[in-house]
């Protein structure tokens, strides 16, 4: 009986450690250019990120900035703050993969991979064979 309890304890400990590793990206992150913050959250087994702060939230008329470059007409004009820009990341082998990131500055969506490096979040967006990597820092 003690052997069974020991095995169950080991399995549960490994599972809890795995779950906490997956959730290390949860929280709010400051973009590399320091002009926006994205809150990463979990829905089911997938991770998403929405814009919660921008350095310059209003346009030249004092109105909240909206997404003017989105090719999807239903999404064009939505407020920048609150916009979900990271979608459908899943945790696999120490990384969050198979997601997308939308850049409201150019209106394009890229496939992406995310990983942690020395407490910073690395987000790599791909377009074909090319990619760009940004380093985001944790706000909270």
Topology overview:
Elements: H1 2-22, E1 27-30, E2 36-43, E3 46-54, E4 84-92, E5 95-103, E6 108-117, E7 120-127, E8 130-138
Antiparallel strand pairs: 1-2, 1-8, 2-3, 3-4, 4-5, 5-6, 6-7, 7-8
Question: How does this structure look, described?
Answer:
The protein has 140 residues and is of the alpha+beta class. It has one domain (25-138): Beta Barrel (Lipocalin), CATH 2.40.128.520. Helices cover 15% and strands 47% of the residues. It has one helix and eight strands. It has one helix at residues 2-22, and strands at 27-30, 36-43, 46-54, 84-92, 95-103, 108-117, 120-127, 130-138. The chain has an eight-stranded antiparallel β-barrel with strand order 1-2-3-4-5-6-7-8. The longest helix is centred in the N-terminal third of the chain and has 21 residues, at 2-22. It is globular and about 45 Å long. The termini are far apart.
SSE order:
HEEEEEEEE
Query: How many DSSP H or I helices?
Result: 1
Spatial ordering of strands, largest sheet: 1-2-3-4-5-6-7-8
Task: Specify the helix fraction band.
Answer: 10-25%
Question: How many separate structural domains?
Answer: 1
Q: Quote the average pLDDT.
A: 88
What gap, in angstroms, lies between the N and C termini?
A: 44 Å
Q: Which term fits the overall shape?
A: globular
Major beta sheet summary: 8 strands, antiparallel, barrel
Count of strand segments = 8
Task: Provide the structure class.
Answer: alpha+beta
The oligomeric status of these chains comes to single chain
Strand residue content? over 45%
What's the architecture in CATH terms?
Answer: Beta Barrel
CATH topology name = Lipocalin
> What is the rounded Rg?
18 Å
């Amino acid at each position: 009986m003690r052997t069974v309890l020991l095995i169950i304890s080991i399995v549960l400990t490994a599972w809890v450690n795995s779950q906490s590793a997956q959730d290390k990206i949860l929280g709010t992150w400051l973009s590399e250019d320091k002009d926006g913050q994205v809150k990463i959250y979990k829905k089911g087994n997938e991770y998403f990120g929405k814009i919660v702060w921008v350095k310059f939230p209003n346009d030249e008329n004092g109105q909240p900035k909206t997404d003017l470059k989105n090719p999807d007409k239903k999404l064009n004009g939505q407020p920048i703050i609150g916009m979900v820009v990271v979608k459908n990341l899943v945790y696999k082998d120490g990384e969050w993969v198979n997601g997308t990131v939308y850049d409201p500055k150019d209106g394009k969506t890229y496939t992406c991979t995310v990983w942690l490096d020395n407490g910073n979040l690395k987000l790599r967006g791909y377009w074909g064979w090319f990619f760009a990597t940004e380093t985001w820092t944790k706000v909270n």
